[in-house]
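Changelog-adjacent note: as of this version, every example in the card shows the full chain rather than a window. The one below runs 170 residues end to end.
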Amino acid sequence: MPTLNVSLESPQSGWMSLRLRAGEQSLVMGVSCAPEDSLLDLIKGLTDILEGSRHVRVRWNCEPEQFDFDIATEGDMAQLIVTRYPDHRRDSHVGESIFSLHTTKSDLCLPFWKELRGLERRAETDVFAQNWRRPFPRREMQEFTRLIRKLRREMRKVRRQETENRRQNE
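Full-length structure tokens:
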């Protein structure tokens, strides 16, 4: 499975650059702060995925283009599909799938979390609320962080158990 790389640039005048890369696929979008609160929706959606939701959709406005991030899960696996629409009408027959990744929930959520944490750390220096025209969703980020930390503890526990099992089988 290819590794997901996520980049969120500091906002400027209500716009932010969002980049995704996985294997040979890459996507660069200049996203707007309106009309959707997409950054908040992304954090809430990823939190919902870690809490067991089977599907979330995050809408991004790029004026006039719009993009949907659809995340569907089954067990520990997740699939991200990014669909591009030429405008706000979102006709299904004109939507084009432009990025797709099938990976584990952890390998999907962790890169987003790391980049969102960086964005959060830069929020004060970047005058985030003024430049994004919305405050950084700190409360939602705290909940997402709590679930990521829980996930990381579980992953470490599984790795320790696997290491112990290998040693016993040698």
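Structural remarks: Residues 4-169 form a domain with the Secreted effector protein pipB2 fold fold (CATH 3.30.2450).
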